[in-house]
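Data availability (excerpt). The following record was deposited with the supplementary files.
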Amino acid sequence: MDYFSLIIGLLIAGAAGIAYTLLAPGGVRKKSRTIIEDAERQSQNMLKDADVSVRQLELQRQKEFEQELKNSRDEMHQRERKLDKLDSQLEQRQIDLAKQESIVAASQSRLKIKLEQIAQIEADILDVLEKQRKQLHEVTGLSKAEATKRLLKLLEDDLADEVGSRIIKHEKKMEEVCEQQARNILTMTMQRLASEHTSNMTTSTVDIPNDEMKGRIIGREGRNIRAFEQETGIDVIIDDTPGVVIISGFDPVRREVAKVTLDKLISDGRIHPTRIEEVTKETQAEVDKIIMRKGTEALEEVNVHGLNKRIVEMLGRLHYRTSYSQNVLRHSIEVAFLSGMLAEMMGLDPDLARRAGLLHDLGKAADHEIEGGHPKVGADMLKRAGEPPEVVHAALGHHDQILVEHPYTVIVATADACSASRPGARRESLDRYVKRMEELESLAIEFNGVRRAYAVQAGREVRVVVASKDVTDEKAAKICRDIAHAYQEKLSFPGEIKVVVIRESRFTELAK
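Predicted structure:
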């Protein structure tokens, strides 16, 4: 409402009324005064209504402003919590990096000590030869050339077996050193990765609200289920199991399309051949988008670029593929990280190693469509896409089926074995992993004074908490040594197990 126009109108009306009152006769003047008084009352009421409306509008705007201020504060609090979480993760990564650096330094120092021992043994042999040469020269009075000749002959005859045994001994020591160094590199790489378990179930089932829905899925004379199987290429198994319909098929992508399609049809309630065809096409388009997104996300996660669009699509299809209950896409990403770390430690190109590790199982996305095993199928696809020879060969030979020609093939094969065999990666090894953790903890708890024991870092470290009142520092050191000795005698394990005994005193008081 235009309040200023209203006021001006009222003023004009009042002035006109006054003028008319002054000029009109008495009866007319009285009537005009009544009209003016009514107009004044109406104007006052309208002004009051306008004032109330303005106040209500102000209150509403004030409430909206307070709500916006509250939302801004909530958003600021959420961002602060995220920043705190990122800070804690960064600190944990720094701690892990410091641990890995200490492990590398310890390995280097051990290797340096072994090399110094070998150099000392060689120096001792040279000293013995020099002493024998001088003694022969003094006793026989032979010339240096003759003495050298006889000495060499004597050494060849008397020390032939000893030299051979020393060579074998040193070669064995070097093999042990190299094996230990390789084990340390693999252990450190797996610790740096520290990825989550990737075990998945491979059974596809669809929940239904009631058993009546089974009849609607089958349709009159089975026309609905036949139309569904024809559109999706997947078999639908309907048995006496309550509340569940089973989806069966070799193609995991088709199986996912069929599962989502059936979920939509059940939620919608309209199940007939025409609707089945429409929903299947719609779901197929959605799954195709998901496949491309999953492939792109995997490339961004491992920092690999420049792949053919077809290769990205096949990589995304691995999201729906499992191998021994392990998700193949997550397994490929894990192998890519492990390969990059191993290549970096060996002085090779980590980017190329990550690329080869990410694409090594690409053939699993199409091995049911093309004749041949997944290494050959994947290598053919990568070769046609113009990938480097190292990447093609890694896909072809990561299962040791051909002669190794590139170091990246060995790196990818090693990373593939680490990812597949680490505890928890596959369902069949999870039981053994849990049993080993329980053995480590139960064996430590058997010692007197031990309260709790925790196996951490996949069983490579055991942290033991002892009672501070019952166990002194000297007894804690003895318990630590006894637990380590018990592990050596009673358990069989690769590498080393670090035993840490913790003894602390805590005092707590409440102020009321």
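Summary of structural features: DSSP finds 16 helices and eight strands in the chain.
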